[in-house]
């Protein structure tokens, strides 16, 4: 590229930052070849069967060891989650990785305060009855025992340089897919996790100092199961029950 070209970037295109394409909303469509090598059917079958088996071993964990986890494994899992597809490729997510014990303690205190009110009746009898088989209650030791918390925020809109609010599309779906990918990445990397949804979650924005366009979606404690960890004796629906082929 000549100096002249460099000093005059094509208007509207993504800008280069540190040599990488930065996601700029409103950039024009630009395509690049996508030609992944096709996997032989036998290899596909083997991968699919192995993945199915490994994913079936994933369990939601509520009793964590306080042992540290390699932070880079968690960062890599977050990077995997951030490859999720999103409405209009707006990538409307922020992942806050909390390892600081004092911030985890403040999150636990605030979450337990809200959960106490929820379990004391705010959820309603039908909801409480649905939760009873899982044995959950307002005490949330995982928020301080797990060495890392990933607090996932949805960006409900984005702010233009002039402060104008611009809508994001399919935010729930996009962030939900990203969290699914996060859980898969953590599990396949050997870490246990839980999707915790304290309600209401506004306190997370305050404790973590997040901007107004972000809304907390879930808290994902990450770590190793405690040595005496137990999980509910769940039975998953069979493939027949969840798959309809026409
Ligand atoms: N947010 C509460 C209640 C809760 C709700 C559902 I739906 C669950 O599957 C589990 C718990 C809590 O975290 O305890």
Automatic annotation (TrEMBL):
InterPro entries: Nitroreductase, Nitroreductase-like, Nitroreductase/BluB. PANTHER family: IODOTYROSINE DEIODINASE 1 (PTHR23026:SF90), NADPH NITROREDUCTASE (PTHR23026). Residues 1-28 are annotated as: Disordered. Keywords: Flavoprotein, FMN, Oxidoreductase. Pfam families: Nitroreductase (PF00881). Residues 57-224 form the Nitroreductase domain. The lineage of its organism: Bacteria, Bacillati, Actinomycetota, Actinomycetes, Kitasatosporales. The keyword NAD does not apply. Residues 1-20 have a biased composition (Basic and acidic residues). This is Oxidoreductase.
